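quick one
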Amino acid sequence: MLRQTTFNKSAAAWQDLLPEGGKEVAFIGRSNCGKSSTLNILCGQRKLARTSRTPGRTTLLNFFQVEPNRWLVDLPGYGFARASAKLQETWSDLVSRYLSTRNSLNGIILIMDIRHPLMPLDQDVLEWLIPLNIPLHILLNKADKIGYGAQQKTFLQVKKALEKMNGSIGLQTFSAHTGLNLDILQNVIETWLDLHKTPDPSTCHPR
Ligand code: GDP
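structure w/ guanosine-5'-diphosphate:
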């Protein structure tokens, strides 16, 4: 279903956003966490979201259409040290307004590098997001970079820390390179976007 996703538009200012009324899932994370790679593998398209070599180059909210009125929204990466203060400010105004007021927003995927989870900025973002009560699901990405034991250890540590934050938050290990646990992420998004599953032909019987 997500394979039909196409880029629709970028919004650099509030008036550029699509009209309310659909269902959206937003993707956020530090620059370089693998947000573009995640969108690409999720939609089965190598170049859907640009995987940029300059972290934080994407300064816009990018809307990708999954099907009519169903959207994935790529938010600018945070924590890009080289961006000017003015630019950081513009991003955060637009992004925080979007996250805190958007009625169409049905869920947020927050991506972290499994080797450096819950960095101070991630914690700030989480503490700000949790009271908004928007369904939240965290990916511990780049799991292919560490062994299975280390993945599980980090998973449990992050799970514990999240419990302390009092949020009901989904958590999984993930790799945008190998597709590890891609099915879990797909299920979360299909549920949030209320995508209609195509019936399996083997279970369809003529009446
Ligand atoms: P963005 O800035 O968050 O959009 O991150 P990108 O998707 O551009 O990825 C940043 C870098 O991390 C690129 O070099 C990617 O190839 C790499 N990367 C992203 N996801 C993974 C992953 O799951 N495993 C590995 N090993 N590298 C990844």
